[in-house]
Amino acid sequence: MVFGVGSYTYQYVTRDTFSSAVKATYVEVAGSGRDIFKDPVTDSGTKRSARGRLAVLRDGDGELYVQQQATPEQEAASELVEVWRDGTFLRREGFAEIRARLRAAAAPRVRIAATAGVQR
Q1: Quick one: which of 63, 86, 87, 94 is 20 to 30 A from 21 by CA?
Q2: Whole-prediction pTM value?
């Protein structure tokens, strides 16, 4: 039997402590890729998560959109940048730098692209 150790057993540190959470939509197990997602049966659809590899791309008008179940090529062309891998920061950037970059880009709206088999 396996027991989880909750935040109540050690210093009560949760994702809310730092207003941060890490989400996952894709995983590779033994070299095989798998989409991971949540789609609670008791929910009206508002808690359904993104599915599979994600890419943030630009359409013909330059507007950003999120592509679910992206191909490796779409993922490579994505605006997303890897910042953390295996417990090590690959890139550090503060909120001031991120906000400045968004202001310079006029903070475009982002839409979620429809994916085969996934209804939004």
Answers
A1: 63
A2: 0.62
